[in-house]
Amino acid sequence: MSILPLVIIPDPILRQKSKLVERVDDDVRKFADDMLETMYDAPGVGLAAIQVGEARRMLVVDVSDKDDEPKPQVFINPTIVKSSDTPNVYEEGCLSIPDVYAEVERPAEVTVEYINLAGEKQLVEADGILATVLQHEIDHLDGMLFIDHLSKLKREMVIRKFKKLSKQREAKL
Q1: Is 96 labeled as ligand-binding?
Q2: Alpha helices by DSSP H, the chain
Q3: 94 annotated as a binding-site residue
Q4: pLDDT at residue number 67
Q5: CATH number of 12-172: 3.40.50.10710, 3.90.45.10, 3.10.20.600, 3.40.1190.20?
Q6: What is the Cα–Cα distance from 74 to 139, expressed in whole angstroms?
Q7: What are the residues facing 88 on neighbouring strands?
């Protein structure tokens, strides 16, 4: 396993729509392991493949408490098939937008259809933090970021900040 480099805004790859994974093979399983190692190292609770530069419809999640045994989950070609009408607000952050946090309102419960690492179709009914993380990561697969759920002013402030940081990094090279 290896830790993969994270893609940070304003990199345009984060706005790409990810492609379906055609088949689950050893390459996909190794990539999932690398994604999990990257997510744990960051540290984070979710990571979409696009965040490490791969436009594949894959994401990894682990919302277990820090004191508990890790419970990694891999979702291949995830799709939200049902959302509740009840809203829930969580303070979200993102490994691709370091040190930025904001409250985002999303459906409190979702049902997600996906393929597991054995290549089997699965269905998960999620609420609480798992529902939020799944929606956040599936947004990534569709080229959306959590800041897209904020007001235009707040979103533009974040983007300007990271464009400035990006230019400063380029100037140092």
Answers
A1: no
A2: 26-41, 128-141, 152-172
A3: yes
A4: 85
A5: 3.90.45.10
A6: 16
A7: 106
- Residue matched to tokens 């409250």: 103
What pLDDT score was predicted for residue 167?
A: 85
Running DSSP on this structure, what letter comes out for residue 119?
A: S
Secondary structure of residue 99 in the 3-state scheme: strand
Torsions phi, psi for 19 (to 5 deg)? -95, 150
Residues forming the active site: 137
Which pLDDT score is estimated for 171? 81
H or E element, residue 61: strand 58-61
Give the residues of the chain that fall short of pLDDT 70.
none
The tokens describing 4, both together, are 């993969």
Domain ranges of the chain: 12-172
User: What pTM, to 2 d.p., does this model score?
Assistant: 0.94
Tokens found for residue 27: 């390459």
Question: What tokens appear for 117 in the block?
Answer: 């690492």
Q: 141 — alpha (psi -120 to 50), left (phi > 0) or beta?
A: alpha
